[in-house]
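Hi P.,

Sorry for the delay on this. The queue was packed all week, but I finally got your sequence through. Input first:
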Amino acid sequence: MSSDDIFAKVRTTLVDALSVDDDQVTPTARLKADLGAESIDFLDIVFRLEKQFGVPIPREELFPEAIFQGDASFVANGVVTAKGLEALEKQMPFANLTEFKKNPRLDKVEDLFTVDLICSYLAMKVAAKG
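Then the structure:
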């Protein structure tokens, strides 16, 4: 499956799940800030992507929201520490953390969750499947 095919399926899924227009779903669109996704939407998105791609998607694998709640050394003064960044990289090998590492504020973690991140994740899952 090509990256264009993956993007097209992800776009359709997000348009349906979030009731947004096609043109809003760009590779750089952030799920929360740009597309208005809320916590409950993430469950729906995961369910729809599983059906669309035929692969199991553990929610915490794609959206590891609790990663910084388990270890106090992962965050200091609202900034993700080197140890936290290492854990994030391990949990999300499909994520491009280059820009985030320049200013790793905890309140900016949600900006990592873009359409492109979902596509990268699904490319990894589809490749492993097949």
